[in-house]
Every structure is written in structure tokens, then in C-alpha cells.
Amino acid sequence: MKTRRTFLAAGLLTAFLAGCGDGNANSASVPDDWGTLKTKGVDVSYPKGSDGYRQQSAAERGKYNAAAAVRTENGRTVSVITVQLDFTRANSAEQAAIAAEAGIQMGASVKGDKDVKLAGADEAKRIDFTFKSTGRDDDPPKGTPVNGVILTGLDSSDKTFAIRVDAVEGKLPDADLAKIVDSVEVH
Q: Domain 24-186, what fold?
């Protein structure tokens, strides 16, 4: 009987400690079976697999992107996630957001910015916008509506970061976008 109580007490203690965690809201949530773009300033995860994103090599992505992942359908890009580091000088997330907004395509409709909680960041901003595809290269056909989100702020070295998610309207479920945002970890 004593052994049973000892195991029960140990089991309850283990469950209590596991359930309590450190209560740290600064830990990112990454779904199982997702890939992660890892950079020196920030990490962001994405759905992978046959219908998901594919990480681009340094040779494939734009020269200003520290990391990128792309999702295609029938040879056309339907969504892309990019990470830029140290893209401007800024002293706050607000200043980083102003600079990030300047990089949005002319003619886009910026819906504004708001504060967002990102694991490891003291402060961060989220910018939501829409634009029409230019139809260049492997982009969606010209005029296709695209939704965009930029997450920006300062990393632990006080360098700016910008995570941009662009997706053809209807091609990235809101639930997946929320998981992408929740997966961000700033270091």
C-alpha cells in the first residue's frame, strides 16, 4: 500500500510540475510536422508537405531575405514567407513598422498596424495589407488579389526584423496564418 501511495504522489508531483511550466508567454508554439525558417534574429515556422511550403536556398531567395519559404500550385507561387534582418535603423517596433510599410508595393491597401505579442520580443507590430499581383515571373496572374502581413520589431541585439507573409486570397487559411504568427520566436 505504501508503494502505491509513493507512486501516486510521484505521479501527481510530475503532473503538477509538467502542467505548471514556467508560465512564460515568451515561448513560441510550433505545430507538429511544420518546418522552420531559422535566422540569427528570428525563427518562423510554416506548414510543409505536398500542399505546404518549401524552404528556398540562398541562391533561390531574394538577396535581402535571410530566409524564405514558398508554396506553389501548378508552377505558380500562391504564398511566400520571407524574413529580412537589419533592414533599417530603428529604435522601436513603431519605427520598424514605418520602415516596413515603406516596402509594401505601390497601390497596396494598408489596413493599418497593431501591437502583436511575439515570443522573445519586448514589442512588435503587425501590418495587414492587400495588393494585386503584378503577374511577373512565377507570381500569380496579373491582378490576382493577395493578402499580406508583416510582423516587425527589434531582436535582442536591437536589430530590426520583418517577417512577411503574402498569400493569394483564399490560399492560406486564417487558422494557418494564426499558427505562423504564434510560431515566431525572436532572439
A: Protein Transport Mog1p; Chain A (3.40.1000)
